Amino acid sequence: MHEVLFSLGLIILVGILFRRIRPGGTEPDAKAKHGSAIIPAVVIKLVAGPLIAYATARMLGLTGIALISCSIEGAMPAMALSLLVAARFNLDVSLAAFMIVATTVLSFFTLPAVIYFRTHIP
Asked: Is residue 104 included in any domain, yes or no?
């Protein structure tokens, strides 16, 4: 059931993102304003996140599967809650939607890397 809800939410977010993009490939209200903001956000979320989660778990004394789980959880992409927070506090909703889509797509590459490094490198 959770997988269905996740897929439905992802489809809705992708629809929100693509609705704001013209057929010509540019946004109606901004010119590539997300480009400079998305790169640091993705690096922090998908690279620094697992490292911070790993370091925190080590400091708490976790080992084994608990340590691996914390590292993997730190590498998870941004989720729909960030879109709701952006809408609630009148922030840039299109940027939040773009970050959700970008981190989800890029996590197809970063999650296997985190899993590999955490299970094969001590």
From this structure: yes
48 in any annotated domain? yes
pTM: 0.68
Answer whether residue 98 is part of any domain.
yes
Phi, psi of 56, rounded to the nearest 5 degrees: -65, -40
Q: DSSP states of 98-112 as a string? A: HHHHHHHHHHHHHHH
Please give the average per-residue pLDDT across 30-36, as a whole number. 60
- What pLDDT is attached to residue 8? 58
Answer whether residue 50 shows pLDDT above 70: yes
Q: 69 lies in which domain range?
A: 2-23+34-120
Count the domains in the chain: 1
Closest CA to 77 of 45, 50, 39, 52: 45
Q: Residue 2: pLDDT above 60?
A: no
Please indicate, yes or no, if residue 89 is contained in any of the structural domains. yes
**Using only C-alpha atoms, what is the Rg of the chain?**
16
For residue 38, the SS3 value is helix
